[in-house]
Amino acid sequence: MSPALSEALVELPDLLRSHLLLSGCAVAIGVAVGLPLAILSARSRRVRAPVLGAAGLIQTVPALALLALFYPALLILGEATGIAVPALGFLPALIALSLYALLPIVRNGVAAIQGIAPELTEAADGIGMTPRQRLTMVELPLGAPVILAGIRTAAVWTIGAATLATTVGQPCLGNLIFSGLQTENWIRVLVGCAAAAALALLVDGLLALVESGLARRSHLRWGLGLGLLAGGLALALLPVGGRQPAGEVVIVGAKNFSEQYILASAIETRLRAAGYRTERRDNLGSTVAYQALAAGDIDVYVDYGGTLWANILGRTDTPAPAAMRAVLSRELQRRDGVRLLGALGFENAYAFAMRRDRAAALGIASLDNLAGAAPQLQLGADLEFLSRPEWRAVERAYRLRFADRRSFSPTFMYRAVADGSADVITAFSSDGRIDALGLVTLADPRRALPSYEAVLLLSPHRARDRRAVAALTPLIGAIPVERMRRANLMVDRDADKRTPEQAARWLDPFPLR
Amino acid sequence: MTTALVELDGVTRRHGGRPALDRVSLAVAAGEFVALVGPSGAGKTTLLKAINRLVEPDEGAVRVDGRDVRRVPLAALRRGIGYVFQGIGLFPHLTVAENIWIVPRLADESDAGRADRIAHLLDLVALPVDLAGRYPRALSGGQAQRVGVARALAASPRLMLMDEPFGALDPVTRDALGTAYRQLHDRLGLTTIMVTHDIAEALLRADRIVVLIDGRIRADAAPASLLANQDPEIREMVAVPRRQAERLAAL
Asked: Do residue A127 and residue B106 have CB atoms under 8 angstroms apart?
């Protein structure tokens, strides 16, 4: 078995369990809320229009955005009420997915009740059923197949959409898919997708069994279907493997690219050696990651100076790295109590890069040299660079005028410079492909490009934890850019790929215990 | 004079401004078999449904057994009145026996003697007892409506409201069921108010015929005296079955 496959399979059971638990709870809440709403809506036109409208509206919001929206919403709720609402992980994912499950349940519920033949409701009323008796003895039993069809749709959607819960820090099968996509580890992607699909098919099949059991009035069938579903959920609730290792839990965050996975893994190794247990919250969005740290939902992660400078402090100037770090350190502490432990020793900044032979032939070593040759050269940029302030700053500072400019997704941008269809690209300075493809990065003497030093950030609570600080301090200044590039390349390259954990062990060969 | 079992007192019901019932007053004595006839849209069904409150009058009062129906709990009122209508409305997810036993079940009656009662009710409507375990989809139209009548009789009501009960059945079945029901009415001492389109059926089966036209009672008479009524619309109404009978006799 390939190491990538065996590693994905090791992670699979836990991810499958939390995926099942999350989607099961979301569908259960969807049913508990959606069915009464459907009954009210079927009875009253005044309720029906707004309820179906709202459920439909929720459905038009992309699931990814819906999940991301609940993070700040819960933060604000927590601040407004003074109650410690967990804003990251299970709760926001659960709320978003439950809302998502509502539409098919409500819509089918309304259709089921309105679809009851009018002579049956007339008979029910005429023989003296109370509205409740009519509901339980006539409308629900007769509408059950349509109602269940709605629940089946909701279950399949929810199991699919739950893969996105990884972006708000809730472990699920999406962890395999997202990290696999980022590191181009297709085996992880396939394992994640196949597991989600299999789970969806299985749940759908069991619900179909319940449905046919109700239709045929076979207690065996629907009892078996419901029993197996309940059993699966109960299994997902059981604690893993009996005993948990002792120790305080530290939650390590990571954004959604290889370098972040590698660094998070290195941080975990150091913390475990210091006697902590660790949990991961991967694939966090840039602003979510910082807010999560400030709110204490994660304890530690690596961010980049320029990102914090622009997104958190809202600054547009480009001071030198040390000056930027000093201001960040002071301001983040003052604003949120977040501690900037220090810089790891490399930058992951935008850097103009060329093939070494081509740069030598044209005599280009800096952006100043590039300005003269640019009118004969092709620029390849990533998809967003040309619309970012960095590009305008560089254009202004060096009066750059290229013969042509084209945008690529990162993988194709590197291929373009390698095969000569682009002369200069906007690389990321810690990207392993810079060395692998024999590229050189051009100096920026006018300092138009901001610094993106990798910095280690600690949550307000963890900042006071001397043992954790002591465990992580050795990482400060320990990772030069060449080393980070090689570690990234191990994960990103096409052949002989390594996992982020393997790359982390190479990057920071810290003796375990 | 004995008090009426059913009494309507100045009952008006409007459908979007137009009155479907216009100050209708009517008294039905216990034991009577009353046919409600009249053209479509005359208000027959509205009148019938005002009695078990499937329709609420805008004005006037309805009394059953001397009590204003608005003062009786709705479920109790309806469970005490047998209701049979053209749509039949047997519950498809329940067996014949479960359909028949639904009203006693609603009233939380004990299941003691259930099987005997169901067998007796099936016998009353001339159905074999082995139908009890079948589902409605396995019944013919005539059988289904017989079950509908048995269901209406299950709680031993004194009053039966019937809205075109046999209207959707073929003529032979309709006649057989009509005759059988009239016998039941007499045997069980029921009071029946039946809406029908079929003038011949009304004339042949009822003790008394109430003609509704445009939401008002135009005539209220025994069958024989209705035939002598001089009102042109009523003459036209009763002329139809009479002409048919004459043409059939001439064949």
From this structure: yes
pLDDT tens digit at each of 513 positions of chain A: 677 788 888 889 889 999 999 999 999 999 999 999 999 999 888 999 999 999 888 888 888 888 888 888 887 887 788 777 777 788 889 999 999 999 999 999 999 999 999 999 999 999 999 999 999 999 999 999 999 999 999 999 999 999 999 888 888 999 899 888 877 788 889 999 999 999 999 999 999 999 888 877 788 888 999 999 999 888 888 765 544 556 788 999 998 888 999 999 999 999 998 889 998 888 887 778 898 899 888 999 999 998 899 888 988 888 888 999 999 999 999 999 999 999 999 999 989 999 999 999 999 999 999 998 999 999 999 877 888 778 888 888 999 889 999 888 777 888 899 888 899 999 999 998 888 889 999 999 988 888 899 999 999 999 999 999 999 999 999 999 999 999 999 988 877 888 888 899 999 876 553
Q: Which of residues 132-171 of B touch A (CB under 8 A)?
A: 151-152
Contact between residue A340 and residue A457 where contact means Cβ atoms under 8 Å apart: yes
Enumerate the residues of chain A whose CB falls inside 8 A of the CB of residue B76. 128
Give A161→chain B minimum CA distance, Å. Answer: 36
Q: Is B87 an interface residue toward A (CB < 8 Å)?
A: yes
The helix/strand count (H/E) of chain A reads as: 23, 10
- Asked if B103 and B124 count as a contact pair (C-beta separation under 8 A), the reply is no
Within chain B, where are the H helices?
Answer: 44-51, 74-79, 96-100, 102-106, 114-124, 141-153, 171-188, 199-205, 223-227, 232-250
Touching check for B85 and chain A: CB below 8 Å?
A: yes
Is the alpha carbon torsion for A413, A417, A423, A428 positive or negative? positive
Q: What is the ipTM of this complex?
A: 0.90
User: Is residue B104 within 8 angstroms of chain A, CB to CB?
Assistant: no
Asked whether the beta carbons of residue B103 and residue A123 sit closer than 8 angstroms, the reply is no
Distance CA A238, CA A282 (A): 24
Contact at CB, A122 and B151, closer than 8 angstroms: no
Global confidence as pTM: 0.75
Closest Cα in chain A, distance from residue B196 (Å): 18
